[in-house]
Amino acid sequence: MKLGYSVPNNQGVDAVGNLVELATEAERLGYNSVWVSEHLFHAEYVAKRLGDRPYFDPLTVLTAIACSTSRIRLGTSVLVLPWHHPARLGKMIATLDHLSQGRVDLGVGVAIAEEEFNNLNISFADRGQRTDDVLASLEALWYQDVPEHDGPYYKFSGQRFEPKPVQTRLPVHVGGGAPPALRRVAKFGQGWHALGKSPNELGADLATLRDSMGVKMEDLHVSIRCVVDLVTDPDYEPWDKPFADRRTLKGTPEEVCATAKSYRDAGVDELVLDFGTRDIDQNRKNLVELAELLRDV
């Protein structure tokens, strides 16, 4: 199982350059990927975490990382598609794919903060339909010489669109785990980027994708982003919840390793580690410790 790293652009880090340094350290340690998150306004739960601290733009951060790395893949966990015009987003992602020589993984979602949609004057109720239209638009823009699309929200025809991505098929990783997200995986996804799922829950959803929706598991990249809380307190009492029912990588090194193995056995190809802290030194320490701990998982 591969390891990814959730770069803390969403944690209120003071110096954005530190995010690039963390990504280069992850590459040096052998991580397969780095991922960034997106919010435009401080929605309520973001404001509680950050106050007046910055939430840095994901694609700007990935552009800087692309220029400072050579191997590690560059993912979004996730971009909120209803907030983006597909032509503008398609050009930005394709340009980043060129800049990184084909290392982009586009993680997408619909978000849950209605007040943020209100500030953007975008309908919250039809965010799923708009997301599907953006995805269909990107298909046309990236893989048709002269793209044509006539959807409920976006229409275009008669003009070339360049550049196309470097990758023959730029991977779209659909985020979320609700039934509409799973249907979106089946229709548009080269990957499923799960959030907040236990190994047992994830395994059940993979069975639904395979058995009810006809998804070929060998063609689907399965990743999950997990909060990591490595406990070293000698007085800590191990959690009695079965590893396959846990939704975070919390506990002793042995517990974390066992939970990671449960994800692997459930069908996860890539485990994205989220350290949930703006402390740069703690991020560096965790990167080293988890790379060693999970090396053979």
Overall geometric form: globular
Structural class: alpha/beta
Radius of gyration: 19 Å
List the uncertain runs.
none
Number of strands: 12
CATH architecture verdict: Alpha-Beta Barrel
Series of H and E elements:
EHEHHEEHEHHEEEHEHEEHEH
What is the distance, rounded to the nearest whole angstrom, between the alpha carbons of the first and last residues? 6 Å
User: Describe the biggest sheet?
Assistant: 8 strands, parallel, barrel
CATH class designation: Alpha Beta
Rounded average pLDDT:
97
Strand sequence of the main sheet, in spatial order?
Answer: 1-2-3-5-8-9-10-12
Helicity level: 25-40%
CATH topology: TIM Barrel
Strand content of the residues, in percent? 15-25%
CATH homologous superfamily name?
Luciferase-like domain
Please tell me about this protein's structure.
By secondary structure, the protein is α/β, with parallel strands linked by helices. The chain has a single domain (2-293), classed as Luciferase-like domain (TIM Barrel, Alpha-Beta Barrel), CATH 3.20.20. The chain has ten helices and twelve strands. The chain has helices at 17-28, 44-50, 58-68, 86-99, 114-119, 127-143, 179-188, 199-211, 253-266, 280-293; strands at residues 2-6, 33-36, 73-76, 79-80, 104-109, 149-150, 155-156, 172-175, 191-195, 221-230, 249-251, 270-274. The strands form two sheets. It has an eight-stranded parallel β-barrel with strand order 1-2-3-5-8-9-10-12, surrounded by six helices. A two-stranded antiparallel ribbon has the order 6-7. Strand 9, helix 8 and strand 10 (221-230) form a beta-alpha-beta unit. Helix 1 crosses helix 3 and helix 4 packs across helix 6 (127-143). The protein is globular and about 65 Å long. The N and C termini lie close together (6 Å). The model has no long low-confidence stretch (mean pLDDT 97).
